[in-house]
Design a protein that fits this description.
Elements (H helix, E strand, L loop, with lengths): L3 H11 L9 H15 L31
C-alpha cells in the first residue's frame, strides 16, 4: 500500500533534510493561521492568495506562459 507520509519521510532522510512530524491539531493551527494571515479567495486545490499584503513574484520571464505556448 502506498503511503505518502512514509515516502516523504524516506526522501527527507535520503537527502539529509530535517523534518518534523506534526499532529493533526498542529497542522490545523498552521492552516488556520495561514488563512487568517493571507485571506485566500480560494481554499481548495492551490490557494488563491490575492490579499493586498501579498506580492506575486515571477520566477522567470516565461512563468505563466508555458500553457499558452
Amino acid at each position: 500500500m502506498h503511503n505518502n507520509f512514509e515516502e516523504l519521510k524516506a526522501a527527507a532522510e535520503k537527502l539529509g533534510l530535517q523534518y518534523e512530524i506534526l499532529t493533526g491539531q498542529e497542522a490545523a493551527d498552521i492552516i488556520e493561521n495561514s488563512f487568517k494571515k493571507f485571506e485566500p479567495f480560494r481554499r481548495q486545490g492551490h490557494l488563491g492568495i490575492g490579499h493586498n499584503k501579498s506580492v506575486t513574484l515571477r520566477l522567470s520571464e516565461y512563468e505563466y506562459t508555458f500553457s499558452e505556448n
